[in-house]
Amino acid sequence: MSAYHLSAYHFLILFLQTFILAALLTPLMRRIAPGLGFLDQPGERKVHQQPKPVLGGAAIFLSQMIVVFVDWFLLQWLGANLSGQGGWFAEQISPLVKHAAGAKIVRTQMWGLVLGGLVVFLVGLYDDRFGMSPFVKLAGQILAGIILYAANIRATFLIPSEILSFVLTIFWVVLITNSFNLLDNMDGLSGGVATISLLALALATNWLGAQDFITAYLVTLAGAIVGFLLYNFYPSTIFMGDAGSMFVGYNLAAMSILATFLSSSDEEWSQWAIIMPIVVMAVPIFDTLSVIIIRIKNHKPIFVGDKNHFSHRLVAMGMSHRGAVLTIYMVTLCTGVGALLLPHVDATGALLILVQTIAIFCTIALLEYARNHHNRTQ
Fold this sequence. Notes:
Helix content: over 70%
Number of strands: 2
Low-confidence stretches: none
Order of helices and strands: HEEHHHHHHHHHHHHH
Radius of gyration: 21 Å
Number of helices: 14
Strand content: under 5%
């Protein structure tokens, strides 16, 4: 563990910075969106009845990028000007200054992470304004994955194969980016699930130690989303759009690759910990896979939107809009809490956590089956 390990206090400051900035920028984006043509029109598969601003993703993107880069340059300046000084402020800022200086060591990965995020954000922004073929969006996501791989942010699953690593990296980026994009079908849903996932991963990387930059990046994105959710929770006044949901999904994919979840400090540790991101983000993955299965079963194109998402199915079972969203939050929290234990248990414990996660979704599937069977017999 680093001698300059950051405390919860430091991470709270980072969270509050992006939270406040997003809370200020989101109303601004809501105001300028109609004039720029960023409006989501009502439709058959839409929940809202009136055109709604769809520029919330810009508030999330700008809030995180501004905080990350302003803090980085400010801390370098403070390091140069506070060198050798004492006092409470210098003591508190010293660990941050050390990390800002150390960021130069991983600047290739940092710029790769930012550039890939910029690609998916711009692709989503264009789609929010003008519309775009799903295949063009897919190409943008693949390009972002290639940028990550070139920046040495690579998924391996402990298998030493460059070809497999390349395929896994692209697949993971595309899967998680699209999963959060598809999950953005009700007010506050994608943003809330992303926040729980980000904070679960941040807790894991902080507990395992020596990953302060990753924890800080996760926390800043979580803060930006929560600031946006002040205006996006039901009934919302603005959407994050594809620009926001794709940017959030991409960052979760990238950071879950970059982070290390294996704990070698324990006497007995399990390599099963590498599946932590899958368990943490089981809800958006379940939503994506279940929707694809339903569309294939109904002989519908998998790229054409519908109202068969997890949230829509919960509403069909009798839940309110807000109730469905809160239920999905709770399911995400349940899988996330279990995932946090993975680095600290042996193979048997990890298997139990995995079985528990699968059982949660099997229970949901059985309830949905019972509802469908009941409706068919009426």
